[in-house]
Amino acid sequence: MLCWGNASYGQLGLGGIDEEIVIEPRKCEFFHGKKVCDVGCGLKHTVFLLDDGTVYTCGCNDLGQLGHEKPRKKPEHVVALDAQIIVAVSGGESHTLALNDKGQIFSWGLGSDGQLGLNNFEECVRVPRNIKCLSDVQIAQVACGYRHSHALSKGGQVFSWGQNQFGQLGLGMHGSSISTPQIIQSLQGIPFAQLSAGGAHSFAITLSGAVFGWGRNKFGQLGLNDTNDRWFPALLKSLRSQRVIYVSCGEDHTAALTKEGGVFTFGAGGYGQLGHNSTNHEINPRKVFELMGNIVTQISCGRQHTLAFTPSSGKMYSFGLGGNGQLGTRSTCNRKSPAPVKGPFVASAAPIESGKKWHHVLNCSFLSWYIFTSAVAILLHSNPDHFNTSSKFSGVDMNMARLLFHRKVLRKYKPTTSVWLQIAASLEKNLLPRLTNSPPDIESLRLYLTLPECPLFSDQNNYVTITIPFAKSIIMLKEAALKVLGNWWSTFEGMLFQRLVELYKEVVVYLLRMHKLGIPSIEENNIISVCKSLLTNVLLLQVSERAGHIIEYDKFYIHELDDLVDIRNDYITWFQRQMFPSVILCPQGPDSLVTLCRYPFVFDAQAKTTLLQTDAVLQMQMAVDQAQMQNLSSLFMPVESVNPCLILIVRRDNIVGDTMEVLRKSKNVDYKKPLKVIFVAEEAVDAGGVRKEFFLLIMKELMDPKYGMFRYYEESRLIWFSNKTFEEFDLFNLIGIICGLAIYNLTIVELQFPVALYKKLLKKKPTLDDLKELTPDVGRSLQALLDYPEDDLEETFCLNFTITEENYGATEVFELIPNGENISVNKSNRQEFVNAYVDYVFNTSVAPLFEYFYAGFHKVCGGKVLELFQPNELQAMVIGNTSYDWAELEKSTEYKGEYWKDHPTIKLFWEVFHSLPLQKKKQFLLFLTGSDRIPILGMKSLKLVIQPTGGGEHYLPVAHTCFNLLDLPKYTSTETLREKLLHAIDHNQGFNLA
Predict the structure, then answer these.
(1) DSSP E strands: which ranges in 123-229?
(2) What's in the GO CC field (predicted)?
(3) pLDDT in tens, 819-838
């Protein structure tokens, strides 16, 4: 133990020496053979803590600050604490705090400003007393200012009490001293590592190195670029990225130590205590440049001086006021820049971690090595990524967080134990209610990442009390905080992100089940709770999409909705609110009427098909009602009668011309009517099958190259609008109407457009990914252009493919080169070039053509229902999909008459069918259903029916396309069945009965 400085009150513990000041470090023989693990220095007294938990004090005792009545010149045992195992001590101007191993605080000394926390303002308390109002809180650290005190609980709460003249308590109150510990509410939810208190200012450091300061700021000691006092904690933004691990406060100045070993000082500098070779005050943190090149591992501020230790060189430096020898330089002169302290310090090959600590404060200085056991030690031994916390990076290892909850908590305690109940109660009553919508620092947002990993959140018993209130706290966050949280979510791995989505999907399903059962306790808050849970997943969906789909869109589907909710009624309610937003449709008010259609991402293909059918039925009914009203009026008034259906009478050899003629004469309201198709000279009545073939034939005709309306891409086998067509734009309008009618009448059509078409129909912008789908070679080349390292690019470079008029030359985009040459692009605008090229292909070059197509489509399908679909879902509604599951087709097929699944002919049929090549199987679907693609609901939705037919084996199978019904003669041999089936499917057009 080495000590130096003012010894006039015996505060150095050197016994009855003659000197009043000690100008260089001297051994304190009293502690020879003993291990000191903590030291606290007051203005005129000192408190020592030994490794066995005993406490010694020496120095001035005028106000009882020693806790005993023994001699003052050498350290004396504080007997009143013998029953305690003390683990930390701290000294203020004339008061002392001690912390025991159970997290309890004892205080003694001057109490006139309430700094003892004993609920009184006694002038002098000479025997240590327990601060009983904190007996239910486990304290991890204490810190004394001149006349105020702080404590940090193991739960992360910061308490303060004592003098508050300058706001040093951080409570927002002005002036009045407080004699009982109070929680600093504005710091709730932030994980703190260390507290520090000065003359009348205070600091707290978080695990990730964020620094908060409050209190007196006359000299800029808070480092906030001004001299205004702070009544609430304020974040030092200038130090946010410096990875601060320790802060020490003097009377009116402050020093901060970074993880890299740098030192920043600010505040009063009149004695040189900032180390900047001047006596200027500094209102912003400023690095001590004369210490650069050295890795500082410990710092400490005295009243008006500062110390810094560099173990690699074995040197300790001091600067500031030296009149009482406190600089240890064998001189009483002040020092404006770091000077070596005289002493037997030994260099260490490996730097000592900053968690090891020595003390010197106020007018005397002490040095004591020990392993720091407070929250700082936790910080130093935790993941180093903590210090990298930023708006883009959380600094949290989520896998470790999950292991902590599941291995430590689950293994140690069972869900039924009182410990789990206590944790749940604490979350419900303490933590969640204190979450603020505007956290003081981004570090507190890390709680939003880690808490959902707690098993309590996925327990149905806690949904209403914990999981849903937590969802509310998320959606109530202000925009800046929510943006940070979104950035952090976007870095999640798919599985981790999916777990969070699944959590709130399960909550919604649970609530809807309870609602369906009419559980009273749930019923009251059900609507609002469902909304909160869904809004949480809305946020996650937005994050996933911005990050390029962390998980696929269908992972947000809630497949149970069809069983739990009347989807048709939900859509009708939603539709009414969209049409009449000012009308209150619910007696409890408009906000209580929550419809799931507000959250379309939860609907799977089956649910959305139901929605589309419901919308079509609604609009068809309205169109039919309107026609019937007009026909009724025609009986009494000169009004033309109208057909309640849209009738298309067409010839096979002039299907496009006949269709255009009818549609041009039709009004918009006619498109909303049920569609009936009649082929001239054919007997079939349209119950769906005729309509299917109509769409198949007309789309095949319109796609014919003779019209030149579309360009075919060999590589992708997709088509896109041709900007070189000579056809009238009305044809594009017709195709739009045909596509709309197909969706509206729930019929799939053959239309080989990329997803970009459906994005544009839903007013979403195509991207480079869409170009890759349409023309993979060009897309890959453009992606390679974007990915090429900046440093390896020449100022101007050529793309590795040729863009010509034929493949939408970008010469019209930038006018960079003549048509047909390799494109040269300046590296500074490559992203701009790629964006413009994509825009040219999908938008600019085909704008008038698509406008006609869009207008035609929306004449039929315009409306709110389309807002519920994603582009790929709309594509599946138009063209179906190719997710063939032939086993499912067999499994879902029904039989009539003599046939059943094990009938010999049926067994022969499936044996032959499964042996057919893919192309022939697709032809069979075309023969039987009118399309070779699968509806969005999958194979089972086809509902094939096979029935026996009279006659012999020389008859062919007959398809009733309207009903997906197959007449199958009773074949007895595989060869005959194969021959007749292939002959039938190879001649599949027309509806004349065989």
Answers:
(1) 124-130, 139-144, 148-153, 158-164, 175-183, 192-197, 201-206, 211-215
(2) cytoplasm
(3) 334 555 666 687 888 888 89
In the numeric block, which tokens belong to residue 71?
A: 């001699």
Task: Return the H-helix or E-strand segment holding 90.
Answer: strand 86-91
Residues 6+ apart with CB under 8 A from 617: none
Q: Tens of pLDDT along 223-270?
A: 999 999 999 999 999 998 888 999 999 999 999 999 999 999 999 999
Task: Using CB atoms within 10 Å of the CB of residue 553, give its burial: 0 to 12 exposed, 13 to 18 middle, 19+ buried.
Answer: middle
Residues in contact with 905: Cβ distance below 8 Å, sequence separation at least 6, in sequence order? 899, 948, 968, 970, 971, 972, 977
Q: What is the pLDDT of residues 275-328, one digit of tens each?
A: 999 999 999 999 999 999 889 999 999 999 999 999 888 899 999 999 999 999
Would you state the pLDDT for residue 355? 32
Active-site residue set? 962
Confirm if 534 and 526 have CB atoms less than 8 A apart.
Answer: no
For residue 305, list its beta bridge partners. 320
Residue 498 has pLDDT above 90, yes or no: yes
Q: Cα separation of 477 and 437, whole Å? A: 4
In sequence order, what DSSP letters do the residues of 152-173 get, joined into one string? EETTS-EEEEEEETTSTT-SS-
- Spell out the residues 6+ positions from residue 67 whose beta carbon is closer than 8 angstroms to its own: 55, 57, 78, 80, 81, 96, 108, 109, 126, 127, 128
Q: Which residues pair with 713 in a beta bridge?
A: 718
Is there a contact between 104 and 94 (Cβ–Cβ < 8 Å)? no
Selection from 259, 274, 276 nearest residue 219 by Cα = 274
SS3 for 859?
helix
Domains and their CATH numbers in the chain: 2-341 (2.130.10.30), 400-542 (no CATH), 645-879 (3.90.1750.10), 886-987 (3.30.2410.10)
Residue whose pair of structure tokens reads 């021959």 in the numeric block: 979
